[in-house]
Amino acid sequence: MTITPLMPVYPRCGVRPVRGEHCHLIDEDGTRYLDFASGIAVNLLGHSHEGLVGAIQRQAATLMHVSNLYGSPQGERLAQTLVDHTFGDTVFFTNSGAEAVEAAIKTARAYHQNAGEAGDASRFELITFHNAFHGRTMATISASNQTKMHHGFSPLLDGFKYAPFDDLDAAKALIGPHTAGFLVEPIQGEGGIRPASPEFMAGLRQLADEHDLMLVLDEVQCGVARTGTLYAYEQYGIEPDILATAKGIGGGFPLGACIATEKAARGMTFGTHGSTYGGNPLAMAAGMAVMEAVANEAFLASVREKGERLRSRLEQFIGNYPELFELVRGKGLMLGIKMKMESRPFYVHLRDHHQLLTVAAGDNTIRILPPLVIGDAEIDEFFDKLSAGAASFKVPEPA
Ligand SMILES: *Cc1c(COP(=O)(O)O)cnc(C)c1O
After folding, report:
1. Rounded Cα–Cα distance for residues 42 and 226 (Å)
2. Which residues of the chain have pLDDT under 50?
3. What are the Cα distances from residue 247, in Å, to 37, 254, 367?
4. What whole-number distance in Å separates Cα of residue 221 and Cα of residue 190?
5. Residues near 216 by beta carbon (within 8 Å), at least 6 away in sequence
């Protein structure tokens, strides 16, 4: 037998972490890495955060799981907290980002198809955007035009039309009698930390209003304080109808949610959707601990302040290496450095030779996604490693 016990769908690297301490990961052989990847925008309170760990330990010892057939004081509390801090009126909890997007897709379809006289059973299509990433389930790969995720998995799910990202006219041109809504990341993550323009987001909102469409935001990566507001839509001066959140919201514990307005959720009636684990008390305790830490103005202001500092230092830094770097983009502590060549070799170089963890992304971009609790010491350490990495980097010869 040659197949590995872990199904070989990930090209795993030699870093094998066994412990996390604040903004560092320590691997099997004791090597310390500065973690500016945060498990891809997940560990927003860093590793081994006392409040989060304590909340999980206490809840684990009290009650870990019960069925959603029972009342959920823990779920009601976190749902109310999310409702209080967002556009939404109601929340469905999931265990991952893809499931949160799935729930959002179903909510958008049911808005039209399960609303009786008020609805329109023929509306099912979502307009999505090039280079989007919405997860790896059948619906969420179908929602992306990225064929590398489709290969080997046909037939795709029907009902998605793709427009170029940030192109309002193209999105408008795809609206037809079957259109149910738009699904968009306000800031594309995997696609290369590409923020949508304010005009695009405002335009989608307006089109949605004009045509009775659902504006569905995938904030799985950019949400939960990452960009300096609790959710990124706040910085666009618009509100969605439905929003998918995950990654940061559990701080490392698997948790996601689909948040919707009362109107948008009109089709999600008894029996239409469910999840065995979704909203279990342990996940709710983790989510509450994260919200208590991040959903306040002082914390959000600190993210904005650190984001600006990191960004201006990055902009200065890339000026020293015009042959390597093109530009810096993003918001808050969701930053990307666009390179003048494929970004993966530099990301590997930083990881293997300078013990700095970042994430490669599309469009030649290196993602900088530190825990939101970084301080001056971690920012300084980051620039020490990044500078040493850029100085010692040899651009690979094109194959
Ligand atoms: C990571 C991600 C997802 C999928 O989340 P999983 O928890 O891996 O299922 C969906 N959308 C966006 C924007 C993401 O970054």
Report:
1. 10
2. none
3. 12, 8, 15
4. 9
5. 104, 105, 107, 108, 126, 181, 182, 183, 184, 240, 241, 242, 243, 244
- The atom number, within ligand 1, closest to the CA of 98 reads 9
State pLDDT tens for residues 138-152.
999 999 999 999 999
All domains of the chain in start order, with CATH: 17-49+297-392 (3.90.1150.10), 51-294 (3.40.640.10)
d(CA 288, CA 113): 34
- Alpha-carbon distance of 223 to 255, in angstroms, equals 13
d(CA 92, CA 277): 12
Residue 184 CA, ligand 1 centroid: distance in Å: 12
Global confidence as pTM: 0.98
Helix (H/G/I), strand (E/B), else coil: 216? strand
Question: What are the C-alpha distances in Å from 392 to residues 34, 169, 350?
Answer: 18, 45, 10
What lies within 8 Å, CB to CB, of 219 at 6+ separation is 185, 186, 231, 232, 233, 243, 244, 245
Report which of 243, 180, 261, 178 is spatially closest to residue 213, judged by C-alpha positions. Answer: 180
Can you give the pLDDT at residue 84?
98
Sign, CA dihedral 361-46-15-388, equals positive
Residue nearest to atom 15 of ligand 1 (CA): 221
Q: How far, in Å, is the centroid of ligand 1 from the Cα of 30?
A: 30
pLDDT at position 399 is: 67
What is the C-alpha to C-alpha distance for residues 363 and 130, in angstroms, rounded to an integer?
A: 12
